[in-house]
Amino acid sequence: MSQQVLEKPHSFYEKFDRKGGPQKTTHYCPGCGHGNVHKLIAETIDEMGLADRTVFISPVGCSVFAYYYFDVGNIQAAHGRAPAVGTGVKRTRHNSIVISYQGDGDLASIGTAEIIHAANRGEQMTVFFINNGIYGMTGGQMAATSLLGQKTATTPYGRTVENEGYPIHMAEVIATLEAPVFVARTHLADLKGIMNTRKCVRKAVQAQVEGKGFTFVEILSPCPTGWKMDTHTSCEYIVDKMLPVFPDKVFKDLIAERESYVRPDVDPTDEEVLDALDLGQLGEPFPKDQNFLDNFPTMNFKFAGFGGQGVLTAGAILAAVGMQEHLQVSWIPSYGPEMRGGTANASVVLSNKPVGSPMVVKPDVLAVMNDPSMDAFEETIAPGGLMIVNSTIITRKAKRTDIETLYIPLTQIADDMGLKAAANMVLLGAYLEYSKLLPVDHLKQIVPRGIKRKQLGDQNIEAVEAGAKWVRENVGARKAEAAVTA
Amino acid sequence: MSEPTTPSVEIVPHLCKACQRCIEVCKPGVIETNLERAFNELGYQWVEYKGDGCTGCGACFYACPEPGAVIVFKKGTAA
Ligand SMILES: Cc1ncc(C[n+]2csc(CCOP(=O)(O)OP(=O)(O)O)c2C)c(N)n1
Ligand code: SF4
Ligand code: SF4
Ligand code: SF4
User: Fold this and answer.
1) Which residue of B lies nearest to A197 if distances are taken between CA atoms?
2) Are A346 and A316 in contact (CB under 8 A)?
């Protein structure tokens, strides 16, 4: 028999089995345009043989359950984030056909940034934007696309320019961007509109198959429930009210002139990534000492000073040494808006257990490089903790009597070596020599690998040694006399 | 020689939501609603093909929002 039959496209599941309901139809209201568009998309996927390549991204909104209907790959994205999810899918699976399906609350309100930037990046996906001028799912609130005068749950007197502004024209907005290759608006009010939508759906998907770029079809779609109208009146409303504001036309079609483009496969090894980022040069970890790990306490550090004193680096290096000793570590910087100057501090946690929070509120060890830092953090030290004071710059003494204090002329020691910026390394050398928490020798091995300016490696090692030496000569090991005045 | 088949339409009663979009686009007007009819399990009085006069144009298929509710058998040749 060669009779042509128009029936449910095969890209739909044979049966719509939704969890928690006996209904075997879509969940859409009678006359809702979502079903029409679903059908046109499924038919296109069928005809182009794309079911096994398609990843359909459902939004939040009435079409949130599209994954119960399309027998293709499915992801349901957070509200407004479908284009971001689609970006990830397409970039990791170049052969996929990504269909991002969104309503106006989803695309034109909460997800405005996502759609604009996905379009602007020219992501190779097809976006179907269902403009029904209302939030259907949540009970008919105003959308960014609602018409002036339109009464909704949140504009009971009708939308006004003064209160809610003008409706946003997404197709026009997207068409102003350079990257998109096909941007059109269609409608579902009558057969002509539906068949034109069908044409545009195919065109947009075909362009993606050919690797032409970002395609966008906005579809004026009836929401009889949200509009409180019957199907017939809804269609009239689209023709009489919506089309004059949202004209149906092709705003942009560069499909023929744009070259096909396949994003190059970038799949670097871990080593290549670390190299490119100038990271991961710490080398092999130190041999594991289980006894040492078992007995290691959880230690909270804060290194504070002004920008340029290297407190962030000091924290990072200490964390790096801890990491190479097989400890659990965290490092988190905190600084003001200034790129240079201003105050900064780093929180570091070293532990033999997973670190819960990287924020150090009550440090066991506080190192302060300048007065404001001491003023700000002395009070926060845990009782019995240690404060290391850069006595070159800070002249006042500690107020706390329940802590240990070491006054070390960190800046002076570094200055004497001709490397003022290395006061942070002097600090680390002095601290580890004093506390014996981790071997100074290991610190010296990590310093040249961990600092950004590799050519200064040797000088930084010397600075570490200078700090250690100062402690040996002036303090001795811990539990010797704690407070030394420089 | 094979016999040309007659075009026809089938409305699946338990899938129809009675929105009447199909009726609006059917030029020969061969789909009708019947308010005397019982309700389907969705609670709708499904629409029905009058039985002849369908041209197989397919309009109702595209106008119907419910994926499986309308099946159109176009004009063709039965082998
Ligand atoms: C983060 C977040 N904010 C708000 C909501 C509530 N919410 C659910 S759907 C929706 C809007 C849906 O409107 P639209 O995108 O136009 O889709 P329609 O339902 O009309 O198809 C909102 C605001 C949510 N689910 N998640
Ligand atoms: S509320 Fe509107 S958009 Fe949602 S299913 Fe019903 S008609 Fe469709
Ligand atoms: S196929 Fe055309 S003629 Fe036949 S019922 Fe549908 S709309 Fe009417
Ligand atoms: S368009 Fe579909 S759901 Fe609506 S009345 Fe016709 S067959 Fe029923």
Assistant:
1) B62
2) yes
